[in-house]
Amino acid sequence: MADPDTTTIAGWLEAFASGAGAAPPTDEELRQLLDLARHAAHRSQRQAAPIACWIAGRTGRPVAELLALVEADERLRAPDEG
C-alpha cells in the first residue's frame, strides 16, 4: 500500500493516526471536530481550537455529543450561532 499523501488533511490524519495506533476520524467525525474547533476559535482565542479538540479526545465521549454540548451553551458557541 502506498504512503498516504500527507499534504492533504485525510492523508496527514491517516499517517498520524497510524503512527499513534488509532483510527483516523470518519468523515462525519472530522466535520464535527472542525465545527467544535470553529466554535472555540470564533468564541475565544484561536489557540482554544486545538486544545478543545484535545479535551474532546480525552473524554472518550462521541464528538457529536460534545459538539451538541457546545452548540447548546451560548457561552461556548460561536457568536453567529443562534
Rounded mean pLDDT is 95
Radius of gyration over all CA atoms, rounded: 14 Å
Specify the biggest β-sheet: none
End-to-end span in angstroms? 46 Å
Class derived from helix and strand content: mainly alpha
Alpha plus pi helix count: 4
Low-confidence region ranges? none
Report strand %. Answer: under 5%
What do you see in this structure?
The chain has 82 residues and is mainly alpha-helical. The chain has a domain at 26-82. It is built from 4 helices and no strands. Helix 2 crosses helix 3 (48-59). The longest helix is centred in the middle third of the chain and has 17 residues, at 27-43. The radius of gyration is 14 Å and the shape is elongated.
Defining key terms:
DUF6457
Briefly, what is this?
The chain is mainly alpha-helical. The chain is built from 4 helices and no strands.
Task: Reconstruct the topology from this structure.
Layout: H1 9-20, H2 27-43, H3 48-59, H4 63-72
Helix pairs in contact: 2-3, 2-4
